[in-house]
């Protein structure tokens, strides 16, 4: 059973909410799919095949252990991993990234990310802003929520924004809609039965509180056939005819439109089918499930090889019409046993990125789908007493691919310890601005109206990364 988590909302348009369409069985305090789609009607009409897959490296990846090796640094800084030449002349990654290194001409390596807020969630990576900015009116929206507002259409076959993140990004509600309100919140399928991600004890209470009273499903209730559902729509349409005839504002007609769209999504099954991996070619599924040796010290929050199937889900959702999919790979919060844990996580990231790029290329989707992998900050150059690396907001890393970008290049550089950006600093908002540009949205000109009626720019300091265009 596919479950979606959404926040309950208070409606202010005076319409009576009809509970007949439950998108399956509506949970406590949940919204019907029709209501969510109706609220998204205020979005714009622009559309294309452009999309974004946003991979959050939960916990903050160590830049020097992945894409910015420092082989000449002291051992307590360079770590245990060897430098590996890539397909780009003069550019080295570490030995944990052999597949990406061999196909480095398909990637962009961001070595000089700055401006990290230092917070342990994915909100800045999702929005470009800190949680404090515009906090009194709800804060800035995640990029996917802005896409829903600007690009979503009532006739779309799928929601614009789907959040598949697990662990800390889910618990902290990182992909939130901010001042746009719940109508632009992401659809959140519950993947816990498919992908195990154990939570730290301190997060378990947070997650329980998040889940309480917000369940809605994207399947028809058992025993409710498509024909019966359509009959209910027709019956309720007859009941509402008088109200519709008397409604000069057109609100009832709009409600009917969204009800019909919700029925269309439910009865076609296209969106729900995209999340059903049993419908995928078994050979493709195998490609996204690498055979890897179990590490000596795998942390209990670290995901295993099966987690890469989330990237396959992301591709399937985009094929179904979703514009932005956020996924996560946990857990890069390596305060202890950094090197043992990275021996598991590094190859996972390497295989997942390579296979996602190859899969999209084979399907002719790579130029339309922009892939971004990054985390909330970097890790300390110096290894601590627990053989770990701590939080380091001064500089962090990112990897991009697809989207018609000029790949096969490195953006920026760091000092001899990977501690500071020494050339071409790239702000988090610069990356977000580039994602908006890929989607046909002008990050400097397009605005969103907040709850006070004031226009808000999509970025405040960000500029599109010109080297990528």
Task: Please tell me about this protein's structure.
Strands 2, 5, 6, 8, 9, 12, 13 and 16 form an 8-stranded mixed beta sheet that branches. The two termini are 42 Å apart. This protein is of the alpha/beta class and 469 residues long. Helix content is 30%, strand content 15%. The chain has a single domain (49-202, 270-468), classed as Alkaline Phosphatase, subunit A (3-Layer(aba) Sandwich), CATH 3.40.720. It has helices spanning 33-39, 75-78, 98-102, 123-127, 143-151, 168-171, 201-211, 226-239, 241-246, 251-268, 270-274, 282-287, 309-319, 338-362, 428-438; strands at residues 3-5, 51-58, 83-85, 92-94, 107-114, 161-163, 215-217, 324-330, 369-374, 378-379, 391-392, 396-402, 409-411, 413-414, 421-423, 426-427, 447-449, 455-457. Residues 1-37, 39-47, 212-226 and 246-258 have low confidence and may be disordered. α8 runs antiparallel to α10.
List keywords for this structure.
469 residues; Alkaline Phosphatase, subunit A; alpha/beta; 15 helices; 15% strand
How are the SSEs placed, and which strands pair?
Elements: E1 3-5, H1 33-39, E2 51-58, H2 75-78, E3 83-85, E4 92-94, H3 98-102, E5 107-114, H4 123-127, H5 143-151, E6 161-163, H6 168-171, H7 201-211, E7 215-217, H8 226-239, H9 241-246, H10 251-268, H11 270-274, H12 282-287, H13 309-319, E8 324-330, H14 338-362, E9 369-374, E10 378-379, E11 391-392, E12 396-402, E13 409-411, E14 413-414, E15 421-423, E16 426-427, H15 428-438, E17 447-449, E18 455-457
Parallel strand pairs: 2-8, 2-9, 5-13, 5-16, 6-8
Antiparallel strand pairs: 1-7, 3-4, 5-12, 9-12, 10-11, 14-15, 17-18
Helix pairs in contact: 1-10, 8-10
């Amino acid at each position: 059973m596919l479950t979606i988590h959404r926040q309950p909302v208070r409606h202010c348009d005076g319409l009576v909410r009809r509970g007949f369409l439950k998108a399956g069985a509506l949970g406590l305090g949940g919204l019907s799919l029709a209501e969510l789609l109706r609220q998204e009607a205020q979005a714009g009409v622009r559309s294309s095949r452009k999309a974004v897959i946003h991979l959050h490296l939960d916990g903050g990846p160590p830049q020097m252990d992945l894409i910015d090796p420092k082989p000449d640094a002291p051992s307590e800084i360079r770590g245990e991993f060897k430098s590996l030449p890539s397909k780009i002349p003069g550019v080295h990654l570490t030995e944990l990234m052999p597949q990406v290194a061999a196909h480095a001409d398909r990637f962009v390596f961001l070595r000089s990310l700055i401006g990290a807020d230092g917070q342990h969630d994915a909100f800045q990576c999702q929005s470009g802003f800190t949680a404090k900015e515009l906090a009194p009116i709800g804060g800035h929206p995640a990029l996917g929520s802005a896409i829903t507002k600007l690009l979503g259409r009532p006739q779309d076959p799928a929601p614009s924004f789907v959040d598949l993140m697990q662990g800390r990004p889910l618990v902290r509600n990182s992909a939130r809609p901010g001042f746009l309100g719940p109508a632009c919140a992401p659809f959140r399928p519950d993947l816990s039965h498919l992908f195990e991600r154990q939570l730290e004890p301190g997060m378990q209470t947070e997650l329980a509180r998040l889940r309480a009273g917000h369940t809605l499903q994207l399947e028809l209730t058992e025993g409710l056939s498509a024909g019966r559902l359509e009959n209910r729509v027709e019956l309720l349409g007859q009941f509402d005819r008088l109200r519709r005839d008397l409604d000069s504002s057109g609100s009832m007609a709009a409600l009917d439109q969204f009800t019909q769209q919700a029925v269309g999504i439910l009865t076609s099954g296209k969106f729900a089918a995209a999340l059903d991996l049993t419908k995928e070619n078994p050979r493709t599924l195998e490609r996204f499930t690498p055979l890897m040796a179990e590490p000596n010290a795998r942390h209990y929050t670290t995901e295993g090889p099966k987690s890469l199937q989330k990237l396959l889900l992301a591709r399937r959702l985009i094929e179904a019409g979703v514009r932005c999919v956020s996924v996560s790979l946990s857990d890069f919060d390596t305060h202890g046993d950094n090197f043992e844990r990275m021996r598991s996580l590094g190859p996972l990231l390497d295989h997942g990125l390579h296979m996602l790029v190859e899969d999209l290329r084979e399907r002719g989707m790579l130029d339309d789908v922009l892939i971004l992998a990054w985390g909330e900050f970097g890790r300390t150059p110096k290894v601590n007493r627990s053989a770990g690396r701590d939080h380091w907001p001064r500089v962090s890393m990112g990897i991009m691919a697809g989207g018609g970008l000029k790949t096969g290049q490195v953006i920026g550089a760091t000092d001899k310890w990977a501690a500071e950006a020494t050339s071409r600093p790239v702000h988090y908002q610069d990356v977000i601005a580039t994602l908006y540009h890929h989607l046909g949205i002008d990050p400097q000109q397009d605005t969103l109206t907040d709850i006070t009626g004031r226009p808000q720019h999509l970025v405040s300091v960000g500029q599109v990364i010109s080297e990528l265009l």
